[in-house]
Amino acid sequence: MPHIHRRRILQGIALSGLASAGCSGESSSSSSSSSGSSRNLSGWTNGGEGTLPRKGIEPPVGFSFPIRTSLPFAHGVASGDPLPDRVIIWTRITLIEYPATDLVGEWRMASDPDMKEIVGRGTFSTHQGVDWTIKLDVDGLSPYTVYYYQFFYDGAESCIGRTRTAPESWQDELHLRFAVCACSSYYSGHMNGYGRIAEKKDLDFVIHCGDYIYDFPDEDELIRIPSDNDDGETNEDFRNPLTMNELRRRYALYRSDPNLFRAHQQHPWLIIWDNHDIGGRDDLTDEESYRVFWEWTPSRQPDPEDLYRRHERLSYGSMADIFFTDRHYPKWYEEESQEDRTYLGVSQNEYLREELLNSKERDADWRILINQAFFGQLYLINPPKEADWLVEKFFPGVDDGIILNDNQWDGAPQERADFLNFLQENDIHNNLFVTGDMHMNWASDLAVDPGTPSNYNPSTGEGSVAIEFAPSSISRGGADETIRGILGTELALLATAASTVASNFLSTTNPNCQYLEWSNHGYGIVDMKPDHVTLEFWWTRILSHATTERMGAQLLSVKGSNHIQRLDVMSPTTRDSEADKPLADEVPINLLFQVV
Q1: Residue 349 region, left (φ>0) first, then alpha (ψ -120 to 50), else beta?
Q2: What is the pLDDT of residues 47-64, one digit of tens each?
Q3: Model pTM?
Q4: Phi and psi at residue 80, in whole multiples of 5°?
C-alpha cells in the first residue's frame, strides 16, 4: 500500500488548500497503619522523622541548570499511577554542589491542604545513580481519597502536592473525570493547556499519551528557545541529547515550565512514552532512554525486571479498566512488511486480550486504552471497494488507498483488524481509545474496513466496536504551523485556510471520522458516567502565554453504541462533590524564575 510522510503530504495539501481558499475567499503488601509506608524503588528508602522546614535558597549567578523555583526542590512535585491503597509521589533534589554521600530527607502525606492531619510519613534516600530523584510508592491509603504530600531536605520544604487514589474495583455509581493530552514541545509553543488542567479540582487524573518531551526542536516551530544560543551543535538544551545527563537535563527543562510544574502538583498522572521520549537517538542506548523516563516521571514499573515494559491495567471502580498499550514493545519498526508488522508484539497482544476478557467478565462499564498513535483509519485516498475497476483505470496502483502516515496503526492494518475482530467476536464493547501523536483534534468510530458500507454505518455506528478520542497537541504544531513553515509567516492566514481545507478533505475521505480539526491546540476532557461518556476538546493559545481557553467541540457516546456523535449545543461538564477538595497552593508567580 503506498504511503506518504505527513510533512510531505502537507506540502501538497498546502498548494491545493491555497487554491481552494482563494476560490472561496515493583510489588509489596499493603499496610493498614495510619502512619503509612512507602515501597523501595531503585534505591529510594523510607522510615523516620524529618527536620523543621524553611524556605529554599536562590542559586548564584551563573547557575545554568534549568529550574523553576528555589533550590533544592526546584522542579516541584508530582504523583502518578494511583491504585486504591497507594500512589507514586516524586520530587528531585537540585543542589549547587552534591556531596559524595547519599542524600536523606523526609516525606509526609496528609488529608488536608495545610498538612496538619498527617496520615503517613517517612524518610527517603537518593543518589547520583538515579539523578537525585525521589520516587516513593506510598501505601496504606484509603480508596478514592484526595491527599496532600510534601518533601523535606536539610531544613528546606517542597511545595505541597495534591493527589487522589483510585476507587476499589467494586465501587459503583461513580463519576470519573480526567484530562487527556499529548505532544508537548517546549520549543514549539507555550504549554498553556497544562495551566488550565492545573486549575481544575474535579479531575481524577491526567493521561499523557506520549511525546511528553521532545528530543529536538522542529525547525518550523522555534517559538521558545531556552537561551540566547540557538545553535543545535553546541547548545545542549537545543539539540538531540547526546548523553544520559543531557537527556535528564531535557526533562529538567520541561519541568521548569510553570504550567507543567503546576499540573503535576495538582493531579496524579498516567504517562505512556512515544518515539520522541524514548526512540531514535544514535548517541544513547535504549536502556539509557528508558532509565531516564523512569527516573523523571511519577510512573510505576509494571515489572521491575523489564525496563522496557509499560503495558499494564489499572482499575477505577466498576466504571472503567485502564490499559497502557505500548506500540514500542518490542521494536515494531524492525518489521518492513505491513502484513507482518506488529506494534504490540506477541506477549503484549496476549496480555491485553486476556485482561480485556477479564474486564468484560467483571462487567466494567468502560475500557480505556491509552494509545500513542491513531488507531483509526486515516487515508489520504480511500476508494470504495465497489469502484475498484474505476480506480484501476484512472488511478492505477492506489486501489488499496494511500494512507496519510504509516507510523500510525494504518501501518499495521492486519494487526489492527485482528484486534478489532477479537473485540467483536468476544462481544467486548464500550472501548475508548485515547490517543496522541498527530497533533490534530480527532474523534472516530473504530470498525474493520469502515470504508465498506456493509461493514460500517457512519450515521448510526453500526459495525463499530470502539471509539477514539485524540485531542490535538499541548504545543507541537499542527497542519497550519507546518504549512506556514513551508510558505512563510507572511502567509499565515492562507496556511490556516489550507489547514481547514485539509481537515474537511480528510473528514470526507474517512467515513469513520466523526470530528476532525487540524489547527487548534490544547487538551481533552473525558467526563465518564456509567451510561455515557462526554468528550470535550479544549483549546488554548500556544504562540504566547495565555490564561484563557475555549471549548472547541463537545461529543457524546452512549454506552452500547460504540459511536460518537457531535453535540450542536455545547455545555461544559463539571463535577461538584465533597471529594473534590481544594487545590494545593500554587507557588507565587513572583518566586518563579528560570536561569536559562
Answers
A1: alpha
A2: 333 333 456 888 888 888
A3: 0.89
A4: -170, 175
